[in-house]
Amino acid sequence: MSNASRVYREVMNLRKDQSIVGMSLLPDEKNIRHLTAIIPGPVSSPYEGGMFHVDITLPDGYPFAPPVMKFTTKVWHPNISSQTGAICLDILQNNWSPALNLKTALLSLQALLSVPEPNDPQDAVVAQQVLNDHARFVATAKRWTEEFAKGSSADFNVKVQKLVEMGFPEALVKTTLQAVGGDEDMALERLAPK
Questions:
Q1: Residue pair 173/160 in contact by the 8 Å Cβ criterion
Q2: Tens of pLDDT along the chain (194 residues)?
Q3: Handedness of CA 151, 157, 158, 159 (dihedral sign)
Q4: Closest CA to 116 of 87, 150, 83
Q5: Where are the alpha helices (DSSP H) in the chain?
Q6: Cα→Cα distances 32→4, 10, 28, 145, Å
Q7: Which residues pair with 144 in a beta bridge?
Q8: Are residues 130 and 78 in contact, defined by beta-carbon separation less than 8 angstroms?
Q9: Is 107 tagged catalytic?
C-alpha cells in the first residue's frame, strides 16, 4: 500500500507551488492511490492552450515503484499512444527513483510534450510523421489539441460562474471542473463533499 501521508503531502506541495501554472493533481475521494492530473499544454508547442488529463495509479510499492500514468485526453505525439494514452518516458519506467515524486513526473510529462522524441516512440505512426513530415505532424497535433484538449470556453465559463456564485473560489472551481472533464455535477460533489 502506498504511503497516504506522502501522497497527500505531494498533492499539497503541487497546489502550493506558485511557479506551476494551470497544473493540478486531484486524488480520488475513495482511493488515495488513484489520482487525476491536468497538465496545460506547453507554450510555443502544438499543444499550447490545451488541458491534458492524465490518469494516475500508484502501485503498492510506491514510491519505490513508479506511478502508472496514461493520458485520458487524446494526444498526437510520438511518445504517447494515440489509441490508449500509454506513455513512453524513462522516469515512468526504468529510471524512476524514490527521490522523485508526482510533481516531477508531471513536469516531465509537460516537458515531453514540448520535445517529442521520435527515436524512442510509443506510437510509430506519429514518430514517422515527426521524422518525415514535421509540418504535417505539427498541424495534426494542433488539430487534436483543438478537438480533444480544449473545451468550449463559453460553456466552461458559464459553469465556472455558476459554481463561483455558490461561494467557491474561482481558481479552485476551474481546476476542479477541468479535473472532472467539465462535468458540473461531479465538480460540485468534489467542491462540497458530504
A1: yes
A2: 457 888 989 989 888 887 787 888 888 888 989 999 999 999 999 999 898 999 999 999 999 999 999 999 999 999 999 999 999 999 999 999 999 999 999 999 999 999 999 999 999 999 999 999 999 999 999 999 988 888 655 677 788 888 999 999 888 888 787 777 677 888 888 888 76
A3: positive
A4: 87
A5: 4-16, 102-114, 124-132, 134-144, 153-165, 170-179, 184-191
A6: 7, 12, 6, 29
A7: none
A8: yes
A9: no
The SS3 assignment for 91 reads helix
Cα-Cα-Cα-Cα torsion 140, 142, 145, 148, nearest 10 degrees, comes to: -40
Catalytic residue among 11, 25, 87, 88: 88
Cell 482511493 belongs to residue = 31
